[in-house]
Amino acid sequence: MILSVAFVAGSLIFSDTVARTFDRLFASTSADVTVEPKEDIDEAVPSGQTPTVPAKLADRLAGVEGVARTRVDAAVENITVVDSKNDPVGATTGAPTIATNWYVTDRSPVELTSGHAPRGKDQALLDADTADKKDVKIGDTLTVLAAPGSFKVEVVGIVTFTTTNPGAALVFLDTPTAQRELLGDKDAATGISVDAAAGVSDTDLKRRVAAELGSGYDLKTADEQADSAASELGGFLDVIKYVMLGFAGIAVLVGIFLIVNTFSMLIAQRTRELGLLRALGADRRQVRRSVLTEAVLLGVVGSTVGLAAGIGLAVGLIELMGLFGMNLKSTEMAIGWGTPVASYVVGVGVTFVAAYLPARRAAHVSPMAALADAEIAGVGRPLKIRAVVGAVVGAAGAAALVGCATAEKTSSAASLLGLGLVLTLIATVIAGPLLVRPVIRVLGGAFPALFGSIGRMSQRNALRNPRRTGATAAALMVGLALVSGMAVASASMTKSFDEQIDKTLGADFVVQNSNFMPFSQEITEKVKDTEGAGLVVRQRFAPVKVSMPDGKSVETTAAGYDPRLDDVARVTYVAGGTTQALAPGNIAMQRDFARDHKARMGSKLSVEFPGGRKTELTVGALTDQPGAEGFGVEGGLFFGMKTVEEFVPGGQDSALYVNAGSGTGADTLRDRLEKTLDPYPQVQVRDQADYKELIREQIAVMLYLVYALLGLAIIIAVLGVINTLALSVVERTREIGLLRAIGLARRQLRRMIRLESVVIAVFGALLGLALGLVWGVAAQQVLALQGMTAFAIPWTTVVAVVIGSVVVGLAAALLPALRASRMNVLAAIAHE
After folding, report:
1. Burial (0-12, 13-18, 19+ Cβ within 10 Å), 814
2. I need a surface site. Which of 26, 242, 348, 553 has the fewest CB within 10 A?
3. 822, 826, 828, 831 alpha-carbon torsion, rounded to 10°
4. Where found in the cell (predicted)?
5. What share of the chain is helix, strand, coil (3-state, %, to 5)?
């Protein structure tokens, strides 16, 4: 319980600290009013186009009543900066490298601490954090790779953050250079910053600016700009928060089994004590209340320790962010009132709920049965009730999974999958004790033959209390079910992607940014001019809003391609072909998307591009390609490159499909392409094998989280097995003493407990594997709706889990077995 509270408290404290820090940063650095281009269509996939406004708006707004001053902003993030050795100079942790124009205000997040301001086209400033990490000094030459092309600058000054460093790398140029080299237009700006005169509120200033400019621009006050920036940051914070809450959830779920088991065994050992209380007049409610009070006190202590551990965890996360370039201060840690409340609600609430069932059982024991040391946890009616409830819940879960497998829409299938996972997990936990006897008889069937009477006793000990064994194994089952289900899903995804790459990629090589961002035309021209490069087909993305025949307007991303796409890709058409798809005035789309929106061959569609540009396109082809809805790209839309260039001017290529020319081998061309692209370290040359490896690496990143959750679950499960065996040893003290008295050696006693622990751990592992494989099969059906139809079972992982469960059982039994073997025989026999 301490772990779960620590993760809850740590995640809340960390996210609150980051949010408050950045709220201050955004609020203190935003202009009173910011004028930006109006973006009517969201970019699910970057197009490389930088939206701009006319720079002359700054002069126009300077004359508006209430305006104190205006400034031109020219800032872009789609750049790469390299040093003289072509090594990247910038953030390597996912934060952007930002190039912007230099000007000084009382709200600047940085100050010039050495050197001088940039003057002219070949001078720049660099932030101190990046300069220190990359060993860049004043006088060094850097190359900036921007959308219009690359250019060299000399570092003439270093700036230092006066606020929190968000982890980005900052390069500052003078304003004319930034407009010309970053935007490709000396008369363009990415925005206009407007400061209010004394006595004029931001709201009033925004209203006056809007009256001057009309509705063609996006206007934000300082507060609105801060809220917008905070909401974008919120996505990053949510990832961290939900990951940590996921750890907390696993810790809570597995901890419940540990608490239930602990209280059940403690109550069983205090049977006589409870009987005496009942005999002296305590009623059932008082007995139940005494147990629940003990649980609440335990929850309070656990929550307090967990809250303290959570604060330490938050400090560790803050320090970790510092290693990644986000310099937060632990002295400014934010601990809101919600954090301790959530911590105690989780700690006390979960402990109370977990202890309720053992407390209820304790209250129902009669005084005479208790005085006779009758065992509280029988196997009669309660297990029959479990069988009925487990069967009902399991049937509902199975029905949900079957519905998931037969669903035709991804959203419906995913919902049914989630419901099925929850219900089948609950059913397995409920019915687990019913499976103990038949399964452990099989698992321990060879024990008598291999270990003689020791093996027989270990097997019977595991069978002695099915409820206890089931709860102990369930703690391990949860983690293994999760990891085996994800392993099946990931193996199926990997196999599906491999098959799709083999089926669709026909080019010798694909030239692409390592982060999949677009690159400049300069790189395209270099690739085309490479000796031995034959056919080069460009890919460029464009955000679009398409009015479909069913009356719905769909915002998605379409791709543009050069002619001869068939020579570098294998597109499966159900109507039309590449010639019709790429013809001027035409568009192609995925068959199911067209059917869902009542479009067909020849349908006329109104298509809107960024900047309000509109046209009408005809459906010229329908494909059977898998969709990419999970990446925010719906419909599989694509058209000719001329359409993209006409309606999205200034866009950049996202990929180049390259075939070797006549007389040039693939290996030779690869060497030449890599040499050509050596000055552009952000660009990679990939073939089919590289793409497959890339996909595997990306899927592996997802699995790392699952393996971390598994590790946490195993740690808690080991604690649960240790706790169960330790209490079981105490419970069987007299029995152990008698066994020792009739000749059982210490080594034999330790082996008996180890075998008992192993059979329980393997039982939990098998339950988890079986449940996880069922989940994996159902998850693969959801993936199939996205075109990932291959199915694979990672047998290596399955075998590793079984072997690992044996190791877990052995490790968990070490301390209890050692304690049992060191008991004094006479004292153990006299134990009551």
Report:
1. middle
2. 553
3. -150
4. Cell membrane
5. 55, 15, 25
| Of 634 and 373, more confident | 634
On whether the CB atoms of residues 792 and 493 are closer than 8 A, the answer is no
Classify 680 as helix, strand or coil: coil
Amino acid at 14: F
369-383 burial: b if 16+ Cβ within 10 Å, else e: ebbeeeebbebeeeb
Q: What pLDDT score does 545 carry?
A: 92
CA end-to-end distance (rounded Å), the chain: 31
Torsion on CA atoms 135, 140, 141, 145, rounded to nearest 10? 30
Structure token digits, residue 725: 């065996």
- Cα–Cα distance for residue pair 152/140, rounded to 1 Å: 10
d(CA 776, CA 695): 19
What is the 3 state secondary structure string of 515-530? Answer: CCCCECHHHHHHHHCC
Higher pLDDT pick, 715 / 677: 677
Give the separation between CA 334 and CA 103, rounded to whole angstroms.
Answer: 33
What's the one-letter identity of residue 791? F
| Element containing residue 643 per DSSP (H, E) | helix 641-647
Q: Which amino acid is at 411?
A: S
The b/e string for 642-665 (b: 16+ C-beta within 10 A; e otherwise) is ebbeebbebbbbbbbbbbbeeebe
Residue 318 scores a pLDDT above 70:
yes
Residues making up the chain, counted from first to last: 832
Alpha-carbon gap, residue 819 to 730, rounded angstroms: 10
* Nearest-10 Cα torsion for 53, 54, 55, 56: -140
Identify the CA nearest to 687 among candidates 657, 661, 652, 664.
657
Tens of pLDDT, residue by residue over 136-169, are: 999 999 999 988 889 999 999 999 988 777 777 8
Q: How would DSSP label each residue in 166-220? A: -S-EEEEE-HHHIIIIISS-TTEESEEEEEEPTT--HHHHHHHHHHHH-SSEEEE
Query: Residue 620 above 50 pLDDT?
Result: yes
Map tokens 């001057």 to a residue.
Answer: 212
**Residue 576: phi, psi to the nearest 5?**
75, -165
CA distances from 66 to 57, 63, 196 (A): 16, 9, 6
pLDDT tens column, 633-682: 678 899 999 999 999 887 889 999 999 998 899 999 999 999 999 988 88
- Burial track 414-445 (b if 16+ CB lie within 10 A, e otherwise): ebbbebbbebbbbbbbbbbbbbbeebbeebbe
Burial environment of residue 258 by CB neighbours within 10 A (0 to 12, 13 to 18, 19 or more): buried
